[in-house]
Design brief:
Number of domains: 2
Protein name: DUF2225 domain-containing protein
Structural class: mainly alpha
Distance between the termini: 56 Å
Strand order of the largest sheet: 1-2
Number of strands: 6
Order of helices and strands: EEEEEEHHHHHHH
Largest sheet: 2 strands, antiparallel
Length: 226
């Protein structure tokens, strides 16, 4: 029986047409306790980040919920060949542990790489994996922060990403903050400066506030290390 804060959502797999149930956190039960400066939200109770990847237990196809059913026909065959042919059908837990969630995000990352998702989409998956490692208290967080940063920066310069859940201001801010977190302070300061000087920043007052705050934090870090 699911906890009161979870409910079962029925999904049809676009690869194998299998019907399965996956869990989601009820919006009415979501209570944010705090946020980190790279936008990770901590919740009282179940964290919905653990349930944002859908995984088909029949064929192994995994993707973020918002793109799970948007896979192209040619890419379906790639998943069948590279994932489903090696997948052992299994029963997946409806209540996910942090380790379950990390496993499913990594599977979504693998599937996404196979079908050549946009860099920003892959970067988002890597960022979420780093968040889960942070919640767990695992040093693997930094490795995935680096992966995320690399993909975000490549996507910022080479992709149109507004349809991927990111905008120019938020993505630029995240790149700056990830640079700060891995210790590349000069690059962080430069990116924060780019964000706050962008005319579009006024459309994102929360991100503008964060960028100015983290620009100051990065300046202080540089001064302390000088």
């Amino acid at each position: 029986m699911l906890l009161d804060e979870l409910y079962a959502k029925e999904v049809v797999c676009p690869i194998c047409s299998n019907k399965f149930k996956t869990s989601k956190v009820r919006r009415s039960k979501m209570r944010i306790e705090k946020r980190d400066s790279d936008l990770l939200a901590y919740y009282k109770g179940e964290n919905p980040i653990k349930y944002s990847v859908f995984v088909c237990p029949e064929c192994g196809y995994a993707a973020m919920e918002n793109i799970f059913n948007k896979i192209k026909e040619k890419d379906k065959n790639i998943i069948r060949e590279k994932v489903s042919s090696k997948w052992n059908k299994r029963e997946l837990p409806l209540k996910r542990s942090i380790d379950d969630a990390i496993e499913y995000y990594k599977l979504a990352l693998y599937c996404g790489q196979l079908i050549d998702l946009k860099r920003v989409q892959l970067g988002n998956i890597c960022l979420r994996i780093s968040w889960l490692y942070r919640i767990k208290g695992d040093d693997e967080e930094e490795r995935f922060l680096n992966y995320s940063l690399s993909m975000f920066e490549e996507g910022y310069y080479n992709e149109r990403f507004s349809k991927e859940g990111f905008d120019e201001i938020t993505l630029g801010y995240l790149i700056g903050e990830l640079y700060r977190r891995i210790g590349e302070i000069d690059k962080a300061i430069s990116w924060f400066g780019t964000v706050v000087s962008n005319p579009l920043v006024k459309q994102k007052p929360r991100i503008e506030k964060l960028a100015r705050e983290q620009w100051y934090v990065a300046k202080e870090q540089k001064r302390a290390g000088a």
